[in-house]
Amino acid sequence: MSSVKLFKKEINNTIGAFIEDVYSWELNHPDADLKSTEKLVDKAIALFDDLIQKVREAKMEGGKKGFKKLNENLEKAVADLNQELAKLG
């Protein structure tokens, strides 16, 4: 990752794309119970908040070394969320 700013944008774009996928799923399944998708969106928002906080902490500690691990966490967490979305139907 070349900068903190770009990494924050990547977090925002990745999680934002997932939330858009959830809303698309809701539009394609109008008769589905939306409580499960609301929980997925809440999990995505909590993930965003957690990762942004960890980026701030890493920045305060003066190193970008932890960003690779955070990026891996982002990718794994979003993949897990996508699996949960796929299980809905």
Question: Would you give an account of this structure?
Answer:
With 89 residues, this protein is mainly alpha-helical. It has one domain (4-87). 82% of the residues lie in helices and 0% in strands. The longest helix has 26 residues, at 35-60. The protein is elongated and about 50 Å long. The N and C termini lie far apart (35 Å).
List the helices and strands and how they pair.
Blueprint: H1 4-28, H2 35-60, H3 66-87
Give short descriptive properties of this protein.
89 residues; mainly alpha; elongated
Secondary structure tally, helices: 3
Beta-strand percentage range? under 5%
Identify low-pLDDT runs.
Answer: none
**What radius of gyration results from the CA coordinates?**
15 Å
Distance between the termini: 35 Å
Order of helices and strands: HHH
Structural class: mainly alpha
Gross morphology is elongated
Biggest β-sheet: count, sense, barrel? none
What is the total tally of β strands? 0
Structural domains: how many: 1
Helix content: over 70%
Mean pLDDT across residues: 90
In short:
With 89 residues, the protein is mainly alpha-helical. The chain contains three helices and no strands.
